[in-house]
Design brief:
- Helix content is 41%, strand content 21%.
- The longest helix has 15 residues.
- The radius of gyration is 17 Å and the shape is globular.
- The termini are far apart.
- The relative contact order is 0.13.
- Bound molecules: S-adenosyl-L-homocysteine, 3,4-dihydroxybenzoic acid and magnesium ion.
- Magnesium ion binds next to loops.
């Protein structure tokens, strides 16, 4: 076996996984296409990653999901489909144009009633969710502006039930997570996330590196411990 550090091969493998496991359908493809046609960046989770989110949601029996960063609602559709009858996804998107595309995509997916899409910078929307008594959430997917990942993580921790999962995307960032003193605020934020998680007895966490069609990156996975623990 030839070992590979070969992004093209990573993409071929993702294509094999998606093709052989049948990940995706017309509705999801239309959602991606609508984003591309609207000039949005193609930065949604890959199909294998999306299936992982579905599996995690089902594994914790999620009924209430919070997502930071909707884009065209690709990951949102996967999460919403993973929920039982009566389940809800609250998803936060800062860009009104993106939110419009996401709304159309959710409508086409038949999920307009399952997903509560809030437009505005997450840090401005969170106090409103707080005032409404939103949560407690069973699963949180953090995938918005990367400098604020630690802030979103901190807020989420105060609004989840024991046994909930908090998942953050894009924490490894091409391996830059390993760089101390990078002077790059997005990298420092991911390193800071690890420092704060380590010091917080409320969660048990790890970070798993990934390669694939989205290059070298990774997810932080945190499970919320029982308060009595
Ligand atoms: N979760 C999506 C991808 C999200 S991409 C998927 O996998 O399909 C990141 C998104 O976060 C972008 O749509 C961007 O507009 C949004 N975003 C950036 N800053 C934000 C903020 N402060 N609050 C909420 N959303 C933000
Ligand atoms: C970017 C954002 C993402 O959520 C992602 O998964 C990949 C890239 C970005 O902003 O470039
Ligand atoms: Mg992401």
């Amino acid at each position: 076996m030839t070992p590979t550090v070969d992004p093209e091969r990573w993409t071929e493998v993702d294509e094999f996984i998606s093709g052989s496991l049948g990940l995706g359908d017309e509705v999801l493809e239309a959602a991606v296409r609508a984003g591309i046609e609207a000039g949005m960046p193609e930065i949604q989770v890959s199909p294998p990653q999306a299936r992982m989110l579905e599996i995690l949601a089902r594994a914790v029996g999620a009924r209430r999901v919070l997502e930071f960063g909707t884009l065209a609602a690709y990951s949102t559709i996967w999460l919403a489909r993973a929920l039982p009858e009566g389940g809800r996804v609250v998803t936060l998107e800062a860009n009104p144009g993106y939110a419009e595309v996401a709304r159309d995509n959710l409508e086409r997916a038949g999920l307009a009633d399952v997903v509560d899409l809030r437009v505005g910078p997450a840090l401005e929307v969170l106090p409103k969710l707080e005032a409404e008594g939103a949560g407690p959430f069973d699963l949180v997917f953090i995938d918005a502006d990367k400098v604020h990942t630690p802030d979103y993580f901190a807020w989420s921790l105060d609004h989840v039930r024991p046994g909930a999962l908090i998942v953050a995307d894009n924490v490894v960032r091409g391996g830059t997570l390993a760089e101390p003193d990078s002077g790059d605020a997005t990298i420092e934020a991911q390193r800071h996330l690890h420092t704060t998680i380590a010091a917080d007895p409320r969660v048990t966490a790890t970070t798993i590196q990934t390669v694939g069609s989205k290059g070298h990156d990774g997810f932080t996975l945190a499970i919320v411990n029982d308060a009595s623990g």
